[in-house]
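Try it yourself: sequence plus nicotinamide-adenine-dinucleotide, in.
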Amino acid sequence: MKILVTGGAGFIGSHVADAYIAAGHEVAILDDFSTGSEANVNSEAKVLRLDVRNKEGVAAAVAAFRPEVVNHHAAQSEVPKSVADPGFDAMVNVVGGLNVLKASVEAGARKVIFSSTGGALYGEPDVIPADEDHPVRPLSPYGTSKVCFEAYLGTFHRTYGLEYTVLRYANIYGPRQDFHAEEGRVIAIFASRMIAGQPLTIDGDGEQARDMLHVADVAVANIHALYRGGGGTYHISTGIPVTINELFRKLAILTDYRLEPNFGPRRRGDVFRIALDNARAHNDLDWDPKIELEEGLTQTVEYFRKQVLSAR
Ligand SMILES: NC(=O)c1ccc[n+]([C@@H]2O[C@H](COP(=O)([O-])OP(=O)(O)OC[C@H]3O[C@@H](n4cnc5c(N)ncnc54)[C@H](O)[C@@H]3O)[C@@H](O)[C@H]2O)c1
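Structure, out:
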């Protein structure tokens, strides 16, 4: 089938595009390359170099490609940037997303798959692991823009019959993650700095915990969502909280890192402990995470080792 992957030059979107192409689908990538990179783009994908805020450009490009499914990963994806400039975040994530949605309807697309967030929606969760019905109370404009776009998907379904599936991701890690980014990329940052033998600072006491999922598992979830999960919202997660100190220790062993971490101030607005229940994805999408943390970290360290060495 023809699939448009917005954000397909980025970390997660490029793995999703690769998985679709490997499964025999025809893929076009719509990306402005603001945080994505040419090196991530699958050579078999058609590239539409466009900003999602360009309404006319997006409408023309989607109409020309006529995708059956639109997989929407393009976003302003950094929490601190959304705090610094909430208007820009909303312009890309809400208004830009609406340009993609409208263009999808006009081009006759059957379905939109949307990459939302589980980590930035619930605030400090009441229970761990939190399920998808947990009250939504985002601490950042980024979380609010994501949940806002989820609501628009419901509207477009009711008004135009456009099918959708929302995938609320945990903290995703793996090859191609940008270790220069400001936040959320703890494994990419730790691994690359440890390999280079550089000092590291942990924000707070390191006992804060996150649900860490390997990007290859995310790609598989996006394959399953092509045919399943219509009208549904799903955590794509492990359900297991891992502390930053645990990640530090595991990565230090894998990289033979001998330095002790520095501990900085706790970041304001950060959730302390979170994990996301994935039972609904198991039941409806027939999806389960397959890559254990140790295996995923080993693979990711290998990737960053090559990156760091080739940069020397
Ligand atoms: N990384 C995570 O842990 C995580 C967790 C939850 C949700 N998500 C969501 O998954 C998606 C992908 O995130 P990622 O981590 O791969 O980030 P990323 O920055 O690597 O990917 C985003 C892609 O979108 C493109 N893009 C940004 N603004 C654009 C615009 N205005 N027009 C067109 N393209 C634009 C970028 O160039 C990039 O290729 C995002 O929607 C993000 O919110 C990520």
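One thing you can check immediately is this: The first strand starts at residue 2 and ends at 6.
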